[in-house]
Amino acid sequence: MSSAAERLLVRALCRTETSGSLRGTILTALASHRFVEPEHDVLFAALRDIQNVGRVATQARVEEMLLRRGFPDLDLEDYFASRGRAITLTEISDALRDLGHGN
How much is the pLDDT for 28? Predict the structure, then answer.
């Protein structure tokens, strides 16, 4: 299992350019995943819960959810950073494969 793959997939869920169907694939894949990094696990749970109520996972909403769950100190800047290049479909596919999902 790869911490880097987890991080990339959680970052993809934070990015607005990740399509709904791809977002669903990532959410499904990570739903049964045992996270290597506790930070990724906590952040994924918040993202999943926000998605489940049909809301867009903005940085402010995730920060609010994490605060309510007792995790006020997570630095979300890198996860939600809009600067820099987009995450490619190939990178997402490779990360899913690294975690044992996909071909």
Answer: 92
CB atoms within 10 A of CB 29: 17
Separation between Cα atoms, residue 72 and residue 21, nearest integer Å: 30
Residues 9 and 7: their CA atoms lie apart, in Å, by 6
User: Computed from CA positions of residues 74, 75, 81, 87, in that sequence, does the dihedral angle turn out positive or negative?
Assistant: negative
If you compute the radius of gyration of the chain from its CA atoms, what whole number of angstroms results? 13
Query: What letter does residue 18 receive in the DSSP assignment?
Result: S
Q: How far apart are CA 83 and CA 57, in angstroms?
A: 17
The token pair at 52 is 């489940």
Length of the chain, please?
A: 103
Binning pLDDT at 50, 70 and 90, where does residue 51 land? Answer: confident
Residue 37: the pLDDT is 94
92 is written with which tokens?
């997402």
Q: What is the model's pTM?
A: 0.89
- What is d(CA 83, CA 4) in angstroms, rounded to the nearest whole number? 19
